[in-house]
Design a protein that fits this description.
By secondary structure, the chain is an alpha/beta fold. The chain has a single domain, classed as 3 Solenoid (UDP N-Acetylglucosamine Acyltransferase, domain 1). The chain has 2 helices and 20 strands. Strands 1, 2, 4, 6, 8, 9, 11, 14 and 17 form a 9-stranded parallel beta sheet that branches. The protein has an 8-stranded mixed beta sheet with strand order 3-5-7-10-13-16-19-20. A hairpin with a 4-residue loop joins β19 and β20. The chain starts with a strand and ends with a helix. This is Transferase hexapeptide repeat family protein. Keywords: Transferase. One of its GO terms (molecular function) is transferase activity. InterPro entries: Hexapep (IPR001451), Transf_Hexapept/Carb_Anhydrase (IPR050484), Trimer_LpxA-like_sf (IPR011004).
Length: 198
């Protein structure tokens, strides 16, 4: 669902996909090849929210801010399931782990990885290429070339997903039994642990 608010109509590039069960409201600008999952809420009622090209905001995420603020999720930022971005800016090609919370005026540096369930306090500045975990979140080491390669590959899957959704996602009635010829989906992505073993 896409909603106008106080005269602001969201701008969504035609190559991006906003799931019908997501809510995009007001002063929101979504670039190319972005994916917005079901249950996500991107609420630009009190300030502008910009998603640059290739950003994904997955299922049940919230992106919002205090009045008068504007925020940017830079190119290829990757926001995992259930995360909350409240008045924070995300750097290029960063990863925000599932169910993490990034608070007001925080800055996540380019190519940083924030672990699942981390809590990044307001006004925290995370340098580029940092691995961040915990509550409160702390930098524990630098992101390696191998880690960012793994992250980038995962984000590329989400950058392909809008086209796949435009082409094949349809509301249907469920089948009542599993077809005998149902195709097994291939393994196109590994966990970080498996990726690092190579």
């Amino acid at each position: 669902m896409v909603y106008a608010f106080q005269g602001y109509i969201p701008v969504v590039h035609e190559s991006s996909f906003v799931h019908p069960l997501a809510a995009v409201t007001g002063n929101v600008i979504i670039g190319k090849n972005c994916y917005i999952g079901p249950g996500a809420a991107i609420r630009g009622d009190w300030g502008q929210i910009i998603l640059e090209d290739g950003v994904n905001v997955q299922e049940n995420c919230t992106v919002h801010m205090f009045p008068g603020k504007s925020i940017t999720l830079k190119e290829s930022a990757h926001v995992g399931h259930g995360a909350i971005i409240h008045g924070a800016n995300l750097g290029r090609n960063c990863l925000i782990g599932m169910n993490s919370v990034i608070m007001d005026d925080a800055e996540i540096g380019d190519e940083s990885i924030v672990g699942a369930m981390a809590f990044v306090k307001a006004e925290t500045k995370i340098p580029s290429r940092s691995l961040v975990v915990g509550n409160p979140a702390k930098v524990i080491k630098q992101v390696t070339d191998e880690m960012i390669a793994w992250k980038t590959k995962g984000t590329q899957l989400y950058q392909q997903l809008p086209e796949d959704c435009h082409d094949t996602l349809r509301e249907v009635e469920p089948l009542r039994e599993v077809p005998k010829d149902r195709i097994v989906q291939e393994n196109t992505y590994e966990t970080l642990r498996d990726f690092m073993k190579k």
